[in-house]
Fold each of these.
Amino acid sequence: MLVREWSEPLLLGGQVLLILLLAYLLQRLVARALGRLGERYRLPSEFLLPIRVGSRWFILGGALIMVLERFGVSATVMWTAFSGFVAVAAVAFFAIWSVLSNLFCAVLILLVAPFRLGDVVEIIDSADKPGVKGRVTDINMLYTTLEETNEQGETALVQVPNSLFFQKAVRRWRGTELSAFNAHPPFEK
């Protein structure tokens, strides 16, 4: 009698543990495959990190859905909740499109590498107006930080939205080509 009472909860617990174990192993396998892919094709770790995190969330989300199904949660209820979350996410996407644009452009900057840390870049605004020119000191997910030097030799940090590098023409000097930067100071008249 006692065996019958506990057999069903123990079986359910075993199934849940098996689902979680398989999800963990799958996540580790995907992380290892991404690591090898990054080494083989020399992809920057900044590019692989979002893919690794996204795959982890996808696998754990799938495992959570399977666990909830084992506990009797209806697929219709899960689909309704999921579609509600997607609708809210779509509204949020349109609300923060500028931020997402800068995030996507940051990924492109890291992948395509039109410039790197230490390079001198100039964003050409128009023919009659000088643009922003300086040494790249930081590239983060929203801004690229440039160090400008004025005529008196004073420096200032300028944060340029990443999307601007894809909307304007950009002139670049590699970090080793310092003479080109020194010959053309940022605030030429």
Amino acid sequence: MYGESASLKCSVKGEVNPHILWISPTNRAITSASDKYLIHNDGTLFIHNVQRFDGGNYTCLARNSAGQDKKVYRLEILVSPPAINGLRGSTNSLKNVVLPAPYYGAGMTVHRNGTLDIQSLKVTDAAFLTCIAQNEGGEAKLIIQLDVLDTIEKPRLRSPKMESLSLTVGRTLTLNCSVEGSPAPQVTWVLPGGTRAGRYTVLQNGTLSIQQASVYDRGSYTCRTANEYGSSLLTISVIIIAYPPRITSSPAATTYARRGVAVQLNCVVLLLCVRKSQHYFDRTIMSITAYIPSVYEVLLNLSIKA
């Protein structure tokens, strides 16, 4: 394997101890005088930090007074391409701006380990960056998209502050929660207990819409907005009017009067008021809600003068 140590074993037998000689692929005798090679007493050849050019045929030559013998070993160097640790992104065509490692420039540094440092980021620094690692075994690439935000801002509500909202049964309930921030905040609505699912919709601008509101939709609605830099809350109390006021008696659409004579216009309105009472029976509290009709008469006196 590329960069590791390789060993070639040469076992020799003879009546007289033979002398072992190793021949390199370049037909040169190998000695232990260099840091590259080491020949053990048993004839094994060690090659340190093998490179691609170390590959080839190595010959073990054994000699004694009776003769000689040889054996050829084929050494092939396996080279694996480099690997880059990081997040991979989609490929994209780039301009050929190359910064070797190490590189020390104004506001930009490439360390020996491949780390890129950019000081005082600007919006114009946004780009696709490619890290390329090469060796004799091949090449590896890592493409990273660098996005630079113009401003960083925690969520801020743009909707006018509304503490409560009243509407009648059957109408569409619309609650605004417009928000701004960078990055774009996430909007979440927390609904009161009893609100039925399937009738409400959250629009892209954060507005909550509930079709055909009923008395079960009353309660406190909370809009929560958050991004990685902060959060904001908006709570609105919703009151559902089950029985709106009703005019039971009103003057005619057209009323004639004489000049200088007082005119009386009557308007009778029927209101349903909710009254809650508590009664005690054997130390048990029972709550009773009663809808009591109330009649209000509005008198409007007009005097038309000449």
